[in-house]
Structure formats: structure tokens, C-alpha cells
């Protein structure tokens, strides 16, 4: 059973790892963030603290609760050094099968036999990730959405070996985070990544063809379909390098309708990944805020 003494480990201190660690710490769980890059760890903790500080300023959390949540955060530079009482490990490393397999393999060697191993993959096979383990039944996909502290959905992705106990306990973890979970049988792109990849790719085709400016394409989705963020803004937030990787995988498994737009390939080649590099479809200032009027138009591609 889940209790506030349950310890959570998040492997990977990138955008998603940061958000997931914040979610667990703010929900009362002692949380350790693991990354081999100590500078990345420092940045992740600073970003989590900034989310808490922002919540205090907006009156969404008290200063005392924010301070307590910050104190529940810890860091390590190796999975082998994680606490013995870890009940749940969530890996959020790069979308590379061999890298993820290496992480879960080490995790299995140090975790207790009843601890759950979750992967935040948005496109790779949970079955393949778990195939290197002696007990693949305790592996499940736990796909969070960005920004984690605002998005209420978690896709729970079932690998071939995932058992009922793992499913039940992971759903309890989602409830503890005040998030809604859905069950998804393993399939390329799951449900949301598949639809989001298609939407973002089509938006880039429209931008490349000069159908409308980036601002107007995003406004169309926000105002016409009540999306909280336009597909080009979302691509900048997620990172076009990540989006391209997902599209290539979906193209190879699901066919021509997922062929990446050439503009995405061009932007990635130029290092214009989005918000994390300060320039994607839009430009961003030092604080990560979008520069007004900076979006691409068909005439300036």
C-alpha cells in the first residue's frame, strides 16, 4: 500500500523528470532525482523550487508547505545509490531503447522485488524495455504530460507482462498525485502521442506551405478547439528534436501519414529545438518567455 513514507525515485532531470519529481514532492512523498550530470541536477532542483515559489506568489500553496516540499527533494548521480526503501522508480531518460533498458536493468538489481519500475516513454515499447529484466511483470508505462504540475492525465501503458497488481498499485499512485489515469494497451505512440504528433506535424506542414503564420495556426487551435496551447507552441515546449524522434518512429511503424515535415528536420538540423535552446518556431528570452511577434511565417522560412 502507498503511504507518505513511500520513497519515489525519478531517473532523468530533464523537462519531464523535473515535472514528475515536483508532482511527487508536492504530494508529500520523499523524492530522489537521479542524473549522472550534476549540473543538470542542480538546474532541475532550482526549476522545481521556482515552481513552488511561483505557487506561493499566486496563493496556490503556503510558504510553509512549499518549504516542506522542497525539503523532500534529494539528488543522486547513480541509480545504484538510490534509497533501499524505494517503492516506485520512474525513468525519464532519452527516448532510446538501449539507454532505457540499461537504466531499468540497474534499477532491478538494487530495488526490492515488490517495487514498481515505470517508464515515461511516449513512443517506445514497454514490453521491449522490460524484456531485459527477470521480473518484467512489475514494469509499466507511466506517461505524464507537460507541464506536469498543470496536466491531470497519466497514460498507464501495459506491456505484455505487466500484471494486475502493478496496474492497481500504479493507479493508486496516480490518485495520490490527484491525476486521472487511463489504461492503454501497448501501441506505437499510445493514444495522446500519436494524436499530438499528427497534429503538430500537420501544423508544421501548414506553416511550411504558408497557409497561415505560426501565431494564427496556434490561435486557431486555442480559440477554435479550446486547446490550452497551440500545436507549434507545444512543439517548442516539448522540443522539436524529441518530436522528430517520435515522428520517425511512428513513420517506421505506422506508415506514410506520419512522415516528418521537412521543416521540422531543417529546424532540428539548425539546433532550433524550441524553448530549451531559446529558438524554435518562436524565439524565447532568458526567462523562457516567448518573444511577441517572433513566430515563423511562410515568407521567412
Written description of the protein model:
The protein has 301 residues and is an alpha/beta fold. It is built from eleven helices and eight strands. The chain has an eight-stranded mixed sheet with strand order 3-2-1-4-5-6-7-8, with helices on both faces. The mean pLDDT is 93. InterPro entries: 3-OHacyl-CoA_DH (IPR022694), 3-OHacyl-CoA_DH_NAD-bd (IPR006176), 3HC_DH_C (IPR006108), 6-PGluconate_DH-like_C_sf (IPR008927), 6PGD_dom2 (IPR013328), NAD(P)-bd_dom_sf (IPR036291). One of its GO terms (biological process) is fatty acid metabolic process.
Number of strands: 8
Uncertain segments:
none
Largest sheet: 8 strands, mixed
Q: Tell me, what's the shape?
A: globular
State the end-to-end distance.
Answer: 54 Å
Keywords: NAD, Oxidoreductase
Protein name: 3-hydroxyacyl-CoA dehydrogenase
Site (Important for catalytic activity): 143
GO molecular function: NAD+ binding; oxidoreductase activity, acting on the CH-OH group of donors, NAD or NADP as acceptor
Amino acid at each position: 500500500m502507498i503511504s507518505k513514507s513511500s520513497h519515489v525515485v525519478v531517473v532523468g532531470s530533464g523537462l519531464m523528470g523535473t515535472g514528475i519529481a515536483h508532482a511527487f514532492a508536492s504530494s508529500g512523498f520523499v523524492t530522489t532525482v537521479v542524473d549522472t550530470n550534476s549540473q543538470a541536477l542542480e538546474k532541475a532542483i532550482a526549476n522545481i523550487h521556482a515552481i513552488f515559489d511561483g505557487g506561493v506568489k499566486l496563493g496556490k500553496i503556503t510558504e510553509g508547505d512549499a518549504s516542506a516540499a522542497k525539503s523532500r527533494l534529494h539528488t543522486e548521480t547513480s541509480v545504484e545509490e538510490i534509497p533501499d526503501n524505494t517503492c516506485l522508480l520512474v525513468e525519464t531518460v532519452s527516448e532510446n531503447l538501449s539507454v532505457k533498458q540499461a537504466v531499468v536493468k540497474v534499477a532491478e538489481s538494487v530495488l526490492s522485488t515488490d517495487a514498481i519500475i515505470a517508464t515515461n516513454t511516449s513512443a517506445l515499447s514497454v514490453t521491449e524495455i522490460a524484456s531485459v529484466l527477470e521480473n518484467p511483470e512489475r514494469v509499466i508505462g507511466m506517461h505524464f504530460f507537460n507541464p506536469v504540475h498543470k496536466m491531470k492525465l497519466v497514460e498507464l501503458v501495459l506491456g505484455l507482462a505487466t500484471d494486475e497488481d502493478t496496474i492497481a498499485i500504479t493507479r493508486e499512485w496516480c490518485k495520490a498525485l490527484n491525476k486521472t489515469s487511463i489504461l492503454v494497451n501497448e501501441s506505437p505512440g499510445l493514444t495522446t502521442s500519436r494524436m499530438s504528433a499528427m497534429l503538430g506535424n500537420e501544423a508544421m506542414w501548414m506553416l511550411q506551405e504558408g497557409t497561415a503564420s505560426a501565431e494564427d495556426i496556434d490561435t486557431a487551435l486555442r480559440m477554435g478547439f479550446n486547446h490550452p496551447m497551440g500545436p507549434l507552441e507545444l512543439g517548442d515546449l516539448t522540443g522539436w528534436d524529441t518530436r522528430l524522434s517520435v515522428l520517425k518512429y511512428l513513420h517506421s511503424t505506422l506508415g506514410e501519414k506520419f512522415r516528418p515535415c521537412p521543416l521540422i528536420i531543417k529546424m532540428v538540423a539548425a539546433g532550433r529545438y524550441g524553448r530549451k535552446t531559446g529558438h524554435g518556431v518562436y524565439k524565447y528570452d532568458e526567462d523562457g518567455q516567448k518573444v511577441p511577434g517572433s513566430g515563423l511565417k511562410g515568407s521567412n522560412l
